[in-house]
Specification:
Helix content: 25-40%
Number of helices: 7
Oligomer: single chain
Distance between the termini: 28 Å
CATH architecture of the largest domain: Alpha-Beta Complex
CATH class of the largest domain: Alpha Beta
Structural class: alpha+beta
Strand order of the largest sheet: 1-2-3-4-5-6
Number of domains: 2
Strand content: 15-25%
């Protein structure tokens, strides 16, 4: 299947989510030259539709598509809330064996969220018409064949340490301009003046706070709004 064929087929469809999801995914497989789930894994052990998964907050659910070590994938109806689909995948993240990519799709949009260990999460937003762009096509091909190529270049720890160092540099610059500290509790205490409002923080405290944020980011897949759950109802369905 060519990109032009794929776009022409899915540009004007009016199918409901359940009717469209598996056929759309199979067409994507053909588009990027990848076996379908049934072709690659007839027993459904590592690449399958409707992968059952226990939620991090309790209860059972399932992801629309799962490929072990690659992605969890969730569909929504056309023009529906892909954010809700993403939150649903986060509930299954551990049960899906922590895939590096979480993908949401409504057939017109494909959103790829990266979740590589110790790296900041990044998002790639693709559109149906945009698949003619070589860069967008390269992203969707990487989802199926080489997710590692979508790994962000810097780790979360490196980013937070750089930010902490930058805060220290700013504070030292303010001190060099003669802005006095608000308190003198410790000689290492630094004053930052922002929007006319002064507050104090030490470099060590800044580093500690950023590292705490780093730890919270690593736990993000488990920080999900419980209000999204409705007992007895599969989440994210039209």
């Amino acid at each position: 299947m060519t990109v032009a064929d794929f776009i022409a087929k899915w540009r004007q469809h009016e199918l409901k989510e359940r009717s469209a999801a598996q056929e759309h995914f199979i067409d994507l497989c053909r588009l990027v030259g990848h076996p379908t789930p049934a072709q690659a894994d007839p027993e459904g052990r590592w690449f399958t539709f409707e992968r059952g998964a226990a939620k991090a907050t309790g209860g059972e659910g399932w992801a629309d598509v799962w490929k072990k070590g690659f992605f969890g994938w969730e569909y929504k109806g056309l023009n529906r809330d892909l954010g809700a689909a993403y939150r649903q995948l986060l509930l299954y993240f551990g049960a899906l064996e922590n895939p590096p990519l979480l993908v949401t799709c409504d057939t017109d949009r494909i959103v790829v969220h990266t979740h590589f260990p110790n790296t900041p999460a990044t998002t790639h937003e693709l559109t149906l018409e945009g698949l003619v762009d070589p860069d967008q096509f390269a992203v969707i091909r990487a989802v199926f064949h080489s997710p590692e190529t979508l790994r962000p270049g810097k780790t979360v720890q490196a980013i937070t340490e750089e930010a902490a160092e930058r805060i220290t540099e700013i504070a030292q610059g303010l001190r060099g301009r003669g802005i006095p500290p608000v308190h003198t509790w410790k000689s290492r205490l630094t004053t930052i003046d922002r929007s006319g409002e002064r507050f104090s923080i030490s470099p060590s405290s800044a580093r500690r706070q950023f590292r705490e944020r780093h730890d919270r980011l690593l736990r993000l897949p488990h920080c999900v709004d419980r209000d999204e759950e409705r007992p007895g109802v599969r989440q994210g369905r039209s």
